[in-house]
Write a structure and sequence with these properties.
301 residues, Arc Repressor Mutant, subunit A, D-Maltodextrin-Binding Protein, domain 2, 7-stranded mixed beta sheet, two-stranded parallel ribbon, 41% helix, 17% strand, elongated, disordered C terminus
Length: 301
């Protein structure tokens, strides 16, 4: 006879409570039914799992089996929870992994429209850097990823937009005074706070500035906080600072050719639940209609 999940349930319930009667109450079964299931389990494994008939203490082997049984019961209950969640919704659930700039600027309008059409879908949104987004997709822990992403094992990929890099500084910073002709050379006397996106910039005039930098801050929130405090300046794509206009400015560079491309990558369509397929369709439609990016303008005050 194969081991059934109910055997593991009964065994773990008794082991956790140290009593047949208390385990029976927790499981909503009679003590005799729990005792019978427990005996079948012990007969199957061929060893005693409890030291006494009162079931108050596990044998050494019982302790080892209990650890495995508890893990399996927990996994089973989590699986049941997901299945029940899918059955309560129209299309299932959707796992998104996105970079912070996408999460804060692009995603709100997309999710708003998506939930108007599919209000019962459960959405799990995690914001992280592009490298982490790629890892989540490769490990199949995300259905859709949006960020600065290269091709990943042939997964479908489309470019959503690309934007130019520029200098980000406080509004009262000296560079903000004559920004119309700003070049890489103008940044040489100022403290540069580097970030993970700087590696995308291949302009030869930028390399010496990056090499001289003594600050590296991967977190967008921390990076902009340092700029806001006047610690230094940084270089970011236009969209990455769209929400930081009260006390900071984005200054375009006249001699910069560097641009950041943002792609949407998904699992193969036959591996996606209906919710993920509908989300892909919506993002593609909003891109085609010109509604994906709000009208963002960066001006010197």
């Amino acid at each position: 006879m194969a081991i059934k999940i109910e055997m593991l349930r009964c065994f773990t319930a008794v082991a956790q409570r140290g009593s047949l009667s208390e385990a029976a109450d927790a499981l909503g079964r009679t003590p005799s039914a729990v005792s019978m299931m427990l005996k079948q389990f012990e007969d199957h494994v061929g060893v005693a799992l409890f030291e006494t008939a009162r079931k108050s203490r596990l044998t050494p082997v019982g302790e080892l089996i209990f650890a495995e049984a508890r893990r399996e019961v927990s996994h089973f209950e989590n699986t049941v929870s997901v299945i029940e969640g899918i059955s309560r919704s129209e299309l299932g659930y959707l796992r998104l992994a996105v970079t912070p700039s996408v999460a804060s600027v692009i995603l709100p309008s997309v999710v708003f429209e998506f939930l108007r059409k599919f209000p019962k879908v459960h959405i799990d949104i995690r914001d992280m850097d592009s490298a982490a987004v790629a890892r989540e997709l490769a490990r199949e822990r995300a259905d859709i990823g949006i960020g600065t992403l290269s091709e990943i094992d042939g997964l479908p990929r489309i470019e959503l937009f690309n934007d130019a890099f520029g200098v980000v500084c406080r509004k009262d910073h000296p560079l903000a005074e004559n920004w119309d002709q700003l070049t890489w050379a103008d940044m040489g006397d100022h403290i540069l706070i580097a970030n993970g996106l700087c590696k995308l910039i291949t302009d030869p005039d930028f390399a010496p500035l990056l090499a001289k930098s003594r600050l590296m801050v991967p977190s967008s929130a921390s990076l902009l906080g340092l700029v806001r405090e006047g610690v230094g300046i940084t270089v970011l794509p236009r969209l990455a600072v769209s929400g930081a206009q009260e006390d900071m400015v984005f200054l375009p560079l006249v001699d910069a050719t560097a641009r950041r491309s943002v792609h949407m990558v998904s699992q193969s369509k036959n591996a996606l639940m209906p919710a993920a397929r509908e989300f892909l369709k919506l993002v593609t439609k909003m891109k085609r209609d010109g509604r994906l990016l709000p009208g963002l303008e960066f001006q010197k005050s």
